[in-house]
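Encoded backbone
================
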Amino acid sequence: MSSLRESLTVRAYASYKHLTMQTPLKLARERRKMIQRDVALAVGIVRSHYGRVEAGLVGASPELAKRLCDFFGAPLTRDQILYPEEYIPADGRRPVQSECMQEA
């Protein structure tokens, strides 16, 4: 029973950690003082999918990353959208900002 409880606790913590991560996408949205629904409408997806992408629970397609990058512009990059976990420092500081990448 204790191993089941520990397993559930680990899973619950993992879910909580994802929901509270300050991903570059979330920081860009908050800087603009927007809500998830408005961003989702602007890039042509449903709010629930945008929320999962923003939280890092699901990955964005390259096409969606481009639309989000075009919408937010600098300082958000497609790499920050596609690989948010690489831009979240372990010490909780805000991620490094750089200009939006141009499509090759």
